[in-house]
């Protein structure tokens, strides 16, 4: 790849690129000169910056425009849109927000708007929306993320914080020099390392993995997919049944304890409550010893292998890595708790290259070694409304106004939602059991979204406001997880009449008489300068020298020097637990948490336990015998740019690929390239078959991200023609504690699709009625 220094710069969650532009059109994005391993994902946007999938004007659903809020909600995603002027659209949104505010109160506005949006510091869609909604009196928000909600609720009870340790995972530099065994539950799939939230200047996950293997580290990949670890590292693949990691770790813990390999000094000095966990491990109360034999029957891994791993990891310097995906399953609180427990028994927490890590599997930045730039953000102002939902309870919220729900030790009530406003996320990508969501989606009077392309969210909204892409605006790439700071150029003009999210909200605010409150009299450029100058002052206070604003814009980027000392998670705590206690009630690692025990939840007791997931291969299910793993896509970020050439080039017969083991394919008479129907009680979708030994028997893998494409959009439960796995996944909370999503606990069946394969319509825009004199 040529480096093309001097061409305009842009950043996104998948890297930093220089743009080749001709006649006002982006021709190519090339990884910039500082990235040794640029991600090809960026190419996905080049061919869809214009064309039919791009939204060029504000649009309003026909019945809503003609008859007002709540009219024919069942026709969302079915009936045509009418193109309107910005003036008209702003007025409609302003009036509707005022109506709902006055009649129902601000808690009836759901502005959670979960999603990844794009990477620039200022044009961050959620921050813009949240500030705007706070200026109008507040909104019902969402708490935590789809990525690891169960851990966000649980780990603070065990370690005092989750985020603090997520961002300080032991760095690759420490691993390369010290680790002997790297055992990774969920692997370290390099497909995921292409991404770094908020942007990155250089990709280093693959290089570090390969160097780690070269330095002699033994990798053990515990995963349903062999491909979760690249062949170059020569790891051992252990295909445990999905969702049984907690049982496997209990079997390891039992062996370590019974063979006298347990580091009791560590447990005594640094942890609390091992004595309350031990009876469970030894089966003193329930009569079931959590032995290697017991674990073997659950995980389908041999007893000798479990014992071998237990001995190995306790005698050598070991890093226990747990992928974030382990939290996105039924009882997803348990695997992280149990991993911390296991690492405590080995006693290497806080030592170089030892202990545990949350998700070397997940993104580029985990394992990075960088100084944190205390960057400022666009201020969101105060939310006066206290109502919230755990992020993945969106269908429950819409379906059950007034109903009580449990969450992390307390009980709350779902408010009655009249407006849903989404900017920068795609619930028809991220949420489970889409057919249930579609029912729930009919409830609110009004659904508004800011989007740039005609994806399902846009198609199923009442008012769609067209926004720009990062290539059409200036911004600053700056995150606490990357040493590079990049001045993002406006590379092309905004498409059609699209506007930046800031402009969209400033104009609506103007119609509502609160423009000054929202903008504080600052333009977009003023705000970017303000954010940078705030950061400059904070950096100076932290003794980090960065260029002045004007200089930064001129020189385009800078890099903060990487610290020379490797990061070692919990090093300070290990060195002096009295001086550096954890933020837990005991100041120690809480193997038993009295706080959690006192919640009295039947699905989450006071120490880690194995619970059978609601759906898994250990419970014989003749109707749906295959476990579906819907993991992150290698060729895009979630649903973003699924309509681009790059993602499309991976489809099989225009359908999302489904990987299957040869034995399972033979049983169903399937060949490579066949189109199949995947189904269970919740829904069905088509997929294209790829047969591979890389997937364990009994498991099938289909990445997330294919745009939902119902065969008959007006029929509830209609088959998705394209391959969105979330028509199949269950919509249930991990437990009363975390209420996280459980996409990875999903059983299905597949069969060859013998009918004529229907035409794909996922990327077709809706019917649009233009030039309506009355509305323009
Ligand atoms: N089955 C299954 N489901 C899953 C998962 C799984 O493992 N399995 N993983 C879950 C996880 S971890 C996550 S994080 C979620 C991800 O779910 P999301 O983050 O909701 O998915 P994205 O496709 O990234 O959605 C971002 C949206 O923002 C829009 N956008 C981009 N830039 C801008 C902008 O500047 N302004 C505005 N207004 N919009 C913009 C994009 O067009 C896109 O529609 O999915 C979850 N869902
Ligand atoms: N290219 C690309 N990279 C991404 C993203 C993307 O959309 N595209 N999304 C980003 C986001 S938002 C997130 S949250 C992270 C997510 O990071 P992860 O959660 O780590 O990503 P996944 O790919 O969902 O899961 C990793 C692997 O876990 C394995 N797995 C699933 N269930 C089990 C199980 O029960 N036990 C074991 N042992 N293994 C299991 C699967 O085989 C899967 O490939 O990825 C980020 N990186
Ligand atoms: Mo995520």
In short:
With 776 residues, this protein is of the alpha/beta class.
Describe this structure in words.
- With 776 residues, the protein is an alpha/beta fold.
- Among the domains are: 163-371 and 577-597, Dimethylsulfoxide Reductase, domain 2 (3-Layer(aba) Sandwich), CATH 3.40.228.10; 626-752, Barwin-like endoglucanases (Beta Barrel).
- It is built from 25 helices and 30 strands.
- Helix 7 (205-214) links the parallel strand 8 and strand 9 (218-222).
- The longest helix has 19 residues, at 86-104.
- The radius of gyration is 26 Å and the shape is globular.
- The chain binds ligand MGD (2 copies) and molybdenum atom.
- The site of one ligand MGD has 34 residues, from loops.
- Residues 147, 185-187, 189, 191-192, 194-195, 222-225, 228, 242-243, 245, 323-326, 329, 359, 361-363, 629, 631-634, 637-638, 744 line the site of one ligand MGD.
Helix/strand layout:
Blueprint: E1 9-12, E2 15-22, E3 25-31, E4 59-61, H1 62-67, E5 81-83, H2 86-104, E6 109-110, H3 125-135, E7 141-143, H4 149-159, H5 163-166, H6 172-178, E8 181-185, H7 205-214, E9 218-222, E10 236-238, H8 245-258, H9 264-270, E11 271-272, H10 274-282, H11 292-299, H12 303-315, E12 318-322, H13 334-346, E13 355-358, E14 388-390, H14 394-399, E15 404-407, E16 410-413, E17 419-423, H15 427-430, H16 434-441, E18 446-451, H17 456-459, E19 463-466, E20 475-477, E21 484-488, H18 501-511, H19 515-519, H20 524-541, H21 549-555, E22 557-559, H22 571-575, E23 589-590, H23 594-598, E24 626-629, H24 645-648, E25 657-660, H25 662-667, E26 675-680, E27 683-691, E28 699-701, E29 747-752, E30 768-769
Parallel strand pairs: 5-30, 6-17, 7-14, 8-9, 8-12, 9-10, 11-23, 12-13, 17-18, 18-19, 24-28, 25-27
Antiparallel strand pairs: 1-2, 2-3, 4-5, 4-19, 15-16, 20-21, 21-22, 24-29, 25-28, 26-27, 26-29
Bound molecules: ligand MGD (2 copies) and molybdenum atom.
């Amino acid at each position: 790849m040529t480096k093309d220094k001097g061409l305009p710069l842009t950043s996104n969650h998948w890297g930093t690129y220089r743009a080749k532009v001709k006649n006002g059109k982006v021709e190519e994005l090339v990884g910039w000169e500082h990235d040794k391993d640029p991600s090809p994902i960026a190419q996905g946007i080049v061919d869809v910056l214009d064309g039919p999938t791009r939204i060029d004007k504000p649009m309003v659903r026909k019945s809503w425009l003609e008859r007002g809020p709540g009219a024919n909600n069942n026709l969302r995603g079915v009936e045509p849109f009418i193109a309107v002027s910005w003036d008209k659209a702003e007025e409609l949104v302003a009036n509707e927000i005022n109506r709902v505010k006055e009649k129902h109160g601000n808690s009836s506005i759901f502005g959670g708007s979960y999603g990844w949006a794009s990477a620039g510091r200022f044009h961050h869609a959620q921050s813009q929306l949240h500030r705007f909604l706070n200026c109008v009196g507040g909104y019902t928000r969402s708490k935590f993320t789809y990525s690891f909600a169960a851990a966000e609720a649980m780990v603070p009870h065990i370690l005092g914080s989750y985020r603090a340790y997520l961002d300080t995972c032991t760095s690759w530099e420490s691993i390369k020099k010290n680790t002997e065994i790297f055992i990774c539950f969920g692997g370290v799939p390099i497909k995921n390392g292409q991404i770094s939230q908020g942007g990155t200047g250089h990709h280093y996950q693959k290089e570090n993995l390969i160097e780690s293997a070269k330095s002699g580290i033994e990798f053990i990949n515990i995963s349903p997919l062999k491909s979760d670890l690249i062949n170059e590292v020569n790891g051992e693949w252990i295909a445990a049944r999905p969702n049984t990691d907690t049982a496997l770790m209990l079997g390891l813990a039992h062996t370590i304890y019974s063979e006298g390999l347990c580091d009791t000094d560590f447990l005594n000095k640094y942890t609390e409550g091992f004595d309350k966990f031990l009876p469970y491990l030894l089966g003193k109360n329930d009569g079931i010893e959590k032995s290697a034999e017991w674990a073997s029957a659950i995980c389908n891994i041999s007893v000798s292998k479990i014992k071998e791993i237990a001995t190995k990891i306790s005698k050598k310097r070991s890093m226990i890595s747990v992928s974030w995906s382990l939290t996105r399953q039924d009882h997803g609180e348990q695997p992280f708790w149990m991993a911390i427990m296991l690492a405590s028994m080995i006693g290497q927490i806080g030592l170089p290259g030892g202990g545990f890590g949350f998700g070397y599997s997940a993104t580029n930045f985990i394992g990075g070694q960088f100084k944190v730039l205390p960057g400022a953000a666009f201020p969101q102002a105060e939310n006066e409304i206290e109502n919230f939902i755990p992020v993945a309870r969106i269908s429950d919220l819409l379906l059950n106004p007034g109903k009580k729900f449990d969450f992390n030790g307390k009980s709350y009530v779902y408010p009655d939602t009249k407006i849903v406003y989404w900017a920068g996320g795609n619930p028809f990508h991220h949420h489970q059991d889409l057919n249930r969501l579609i029912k729930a989606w009919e409830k609110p009077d009004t659904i508004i979204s800011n989007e740039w392309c005609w994806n399902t969210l846009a198609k199923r909204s009442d008012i769609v406001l067209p926004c720009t892409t990062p290539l059409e605006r200036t911004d600053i790439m700056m995150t606490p997880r990357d040493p590079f700071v990049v001045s993002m150029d406006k590379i092309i003009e905004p498409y059609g009449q699209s506007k930046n999210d800031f402009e969209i909200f400033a104009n609506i605010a103007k119609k509502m008489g609160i423009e000054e409150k929202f903008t504080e009299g600052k333009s977009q450029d003023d705000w970017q300068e303000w954010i940078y100058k705030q950061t400059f002052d904070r950096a100076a206070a932290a003794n980090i020298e960065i260029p002045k604003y004007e200089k930064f814009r001129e020189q385009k980027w800078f890099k903060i020097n990487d610290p020379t000392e490797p990061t070692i998670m919990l090093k300070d705590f290990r060195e002096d637990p009295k001086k550096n206690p954890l933020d837990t009630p005991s100041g120690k690692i809480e193997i038993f948490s009295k706080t959690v025990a006192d919640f009295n939840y039947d699905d989450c007791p006071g120490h880690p336990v194995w619970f059978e997931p609601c759906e898994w291969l250990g419970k014989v299910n003749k109707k749906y015998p295959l476990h579906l793993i819907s993991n992150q896509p290698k060729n895009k970020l979630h649903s973003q740019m699924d309509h681009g050439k790059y993602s499309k080039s991976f489809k099989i017969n225009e359908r999302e690929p489904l990987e299957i083991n040869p034995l399972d394919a033979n049983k169903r008479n399937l060949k490579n390239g066949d189109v199949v129907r995947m189904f269970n009680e919740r829904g069905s979708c088509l997929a294209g078959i790829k047969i591979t030994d890389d997937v364990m028997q009994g498991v099938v893998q289909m990445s997330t991200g294919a745009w939902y494409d119902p065969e008959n959009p007006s029929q509830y439960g209609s088959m998705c023609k394209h391959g969105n796995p979330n028509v199949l996944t269950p919509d249930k909370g991990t437990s009363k504690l975390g209420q996280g999503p459980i996409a990875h606990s999903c059983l299905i069946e597949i069969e060859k699709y013998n009918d004529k394969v229907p035409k794909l319509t996922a990327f077709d825009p809706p019917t649009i009625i233009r030039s309506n004199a009355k509305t323009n």
